[in-house]
User: What shape does this take?
Amino acid sequence: MTRSYPYARPYRRPGPCPDLCGFCQCEGLPGSAETASQKPRRSREGPWPIKRRGAADVFGVDISGEMAAVAQALEERNPLGVRYGVGDVGELRPLGQHFDVAVAVQLLNYAQDVAAFEQMCRNVHRNLAPGAEFFVLNQAPDYRFDGPSPDKYGFRSELTGEETETGPRVRITALLDQHPIEFVTTCPRREVYEKCLRAAGFSEVAWVPVEVSDAGVRTFGADFRADFLATPPLEMLGCRA
Ligand SMILES: C[S@@+](CC[C@H](N)C(=O)[O-])C[C@H]1O[C@@H](n2cnc3c(N)ncnc32)[C@H](O)[C@@H]1O
Assistant: This one.
């Protein structure tokens, strides 16, 4: 099932930050699983700028102390009141409150196998209020690796040839001007998301195609994102606790 959401527009700033993992930082929300305790005018408008849109409490967690430190530095430079913590979402304990929205950007692809994938989903679920929404953004499960090169968007994505229980291994290169960053991760299969999220207690699992924002079209022209739209590298998924 596919439904279209106005919030599926993460590509607002194709500037110095590579689209792959930069947009969240551009928005000041670099955590891998982020939760808000009050709906930001309902999440239809977008989970990323959650705090700026009026969430009472936003908490971001990342397994990397460096990532959390970057987030904290951004918070100190431009205080929004977002809290950050270092932790493994695969071992996330109850956070002491039930949040209304959770967002995981490029997180579930780090699960080593299906059991770990499901465990991450369960750990998010147990920190959500009934009916809360969980949004996941990851590489599109049907991404065509033999399609047009996404280099112009600031990243490259190649199959390594290895298969894991959750999907093929993928080498991602963020094409930063001075220092390209390369890492290997997984591109989980569509049914892995759907099965694990349902097993963790989520319902209304729906895939959300990403769109190019009007501002993006105005700035870069419609042609610039034509390959992106023809071969979407990312896809969002929404579901409900
Ligand atoms: C590609 S980056 C995306 C970062 C950020 N969410 C963004 O969009 O800018 C993936 C992040 O997931 C984090 N990560 C990987 N495994 C994790 C885990 N088990 N729990 C929490 N964070 C994890 C990494 O440390 C890394 O910062």
